[in-house]
TrEMBL record:
Carrier protein involved in proton-driven auxin influx. Mediates the formation of auxin gradient from developing leaves (site of auxin biosynthesis) to tips by contributing to the loading of auxin in vascular tissues and facilitating acropetal (base to tip) auxin transport within inner tissues of the root apex, and basipetal (tip to base) auxin transport within outer tissues of the root apex. May be involved in lateral roots and nodules formation. GO terms for cellular component: endomembrane system; plasma membrane. The chain crosses the membrane at residues 44-65, 72-93, 134-155, 197-218, 287-308, 328-349, 392-412, 418-438, 450-476. InterPro entries: AA_transpt_TM. It comes from the Eukaryota. GO terms for biological process: amino acid transport; auxin-activated signaling pathway. It comes from Flemingia macrophylla. The keyword Transmembrane applies. It is a multi-pass membrane protein. This is Amino acid transporter transmembrane domain-containing protein. It is found in: Cell membrane; Endomembrane system. Residues 41-475 form the Amino acid transporter transmembrane domain. Its main location: membrane. Keywords: Amino-acid transport, Auxin signaling pathway, Cell membrane, Membrane, Symport, Transmembrane, Transmembrane helix, Transport.
Length: 488
């Protein structure tokens, strides 16, 4: 058993994002990496799969609406721009996995570890990064709960429309669906780490491609049916919406696209599953390129064909906004795939937050039975399940709180845009850029330093605008919304 520097045994340290399966030698003993942890066996392909699972999420469903606000010129251009920025800053961040030598330097197991290694002397930056990261992860849990409930409602509503022939408006409340999703998450959250849940990433990746492909196919079919391509060069026109609404919607669209590309917050955790040699950063460069390229192609196809199908009236959620009514059974499959995918993605994004709290509490109370004791529960045909009381209580409270907040603010597009805005600049751009400058010792006022700072400032302005647009959208929605009572 390896002791950490604070004296707490590693058996009590949460093993965040250990997707890899332990390797055993012929003698039955484990192989270990240079840090004393079980041998990592992740590859470029497994890392790509985890990134795609994290990235191709519910955000893809709002892209048709986002392009509708921006138009045929700015919409695809902004999407390509965000993909390039995400790829470039992810490469910078992957170089910060090890401090010092890229092959033998000290490993940083989490995003916060990387921040602490590079900004160790600046406690304010470390705390700010932690605050932004964990608030963002909490927000993702809320956003995914909302998205899952909308998809569950869409299944029932599509069947209702089908039975009534479109005569019944099929109004319903989302609360029960959010509670159901929360109950499922309470159960899954009790699984200690992803080394025991590797199958969830595979299932989630398959589901994401399933509903994205269905959305794309329905969009292509709608364009063929209409015999024309909808939309305009500049997006939704003044008159359809007011001039100020056009401005707010444009800004919110930027946040939605940023949300769709957001995964930097868990990149280091994914990189910690990759074997070496070659260096983990080289593997992650390739994995990032593959995953961002695949994601962008999917996003462009789904967003553009969705906009081509519905033009200015593109729904906020392509598969639940009832732009499509038939075939209703195919919509049911797509929405069921969304729900299954979001169950997995919720766990992927919440693991760093779960691990952070549990590691902190374990370091503060190293002798606490409540914090550290594991109760073995026998499972027929399987290894005993090790129940930890802290994990049971803390993770259950987390899911309950995020579910209640979701019931209070069930605005998918607005919440998605706000999350994208809040997380994009600090987590995807600012901290990776600043850590890279420190890591590579780039001279201040050099041409490369100036270019990186220009990228920083430009993305900050985008973030401010996107956050303002999303907040305006939430304020407008709250004017007609009654907590726990509004039907859809």
């Amino acid at each position: 058993m390896v002791e950490s520097k604070d004296g707490v045994a590693n058996k009590y340290q949460p093993q965040t994002f250990n997707f890899s399966i332990d390797m055993h030698s012929q003698g039955g003993s484990k192989c270990f990496d240079d840090d004393g942890r079980p041998k990592r066996n992740g590859t470029m392909w497994t890392a790509s799969a985890h990134i795609i699972t994290a990235v191709i999420g519910s955000g893809v469903l709002s892209l048709a609406w986002a392009i509708a606000q921006l138009g045929w010129i700015a919409g695809p251009a902004v999407m390509v721009l965000f993909s390039l920025i995400t790829y470039y800053t992810s490469v910078l961040l992957s170089d910060c996995y090890r401090t010092g030598d890229p092959l033998t330097g000290k490993r940083n197991y989490t995003y916060m570890d990387a921040i602490h290694s590079n900004f160790g002397g600046n406690g304010f930056k470390v705390k700010m990064c932690g605050l932004v990261q964990y608030v963002n992860l909490f927000g993702v849990a809320i956003g995914y709960t909302i998205a899952a409930s909308i998809s569950m409602m869409a299944i029932e509503r599509s069947n209702c429309f089908h039975k009534s022939g479109g005569k019944d408006p099929c109004h319903m409340n989302s609360n029960m669906y959010m509670i159901s999703f929360g109950i499922v998450q309470i159960i899954f959250s009790q699984i200690p780490g992803f080394d025991q849940l590797w199958w969830l990433s595979i299932v989630a990746a398959v589901m994401s491609f399933t509903y994205s492909s269905i959305g794309l196919g329905l969009g292509i079919g709608k364009v063929i049916e209409n015999k024309k391509v909808g939309g305009s060069l500049t997006g939704i026109t003044i008159g359809t919406v007011t001039q100020i609404d056009k401005v707010w919607r444009t800004m919110q669209a930027l946040g939605d696209i940023a949300f769709a590309y957001s995964y930097s917050v868990i990149l280091i955790e994914i990189q910690d599953t990759v074997k070496s040699p070659p260096s983990e950063s080289k593997t992650m460069r390739k994995a990032t390129f593959i995953s961002v390229a695949v994601t962008t192609i999917f996003y462009m196809l789904c967003g553009c064909f969705g906009y081509a199908s519905f033009g200015d009236s593109s729904p906020g959620n392509l598969l639940t906004g009832f732009g499509f009514y038939n075939p209703f059974w195919l919509l049911d499959i797509a929405n069921a795939a969304i729900v299954i995918h979001l169950i997995g993605s919720y766990q992927v994004y919440c693991q760093p937050l779960f691990a952070f709290v549990e590691k902190y509490v374990a370091s503060r109370f190293p002798n606490s039975v409540f914090v550290n004791k594991e109760i073995e529960i026998p499972l027929p045909g399987y290894q005993p399940y090790k129940l930890n009381l802290l994990r049971l209580v803390w993770r259950t409270i987390f899911v309950v709180v995020s579910t209640v907040i979701s019931m209070l603010l069930p605005f998918f597009n607005d919440i998605g845009g706000l999350l994208g805005a809040l997380g994009f600049w600090p987590l995807t751009v600012y901290f990776p850029v600043e850590m890279y400058i420190i890591q590579k010792k780039i001279p201040k006022w050099s041409s490369k330093w100036m270019c990186l700072q220009i990228l920083n400032i430009a993305c900050l302005l985008i973030t401010i605008g996107a956050a303002a647009g999303s907040i305006a959208g939430i304020v407008i929605d709250l004017q007609t919304y009654k907590p726990f009572k509004t039907n859809y």
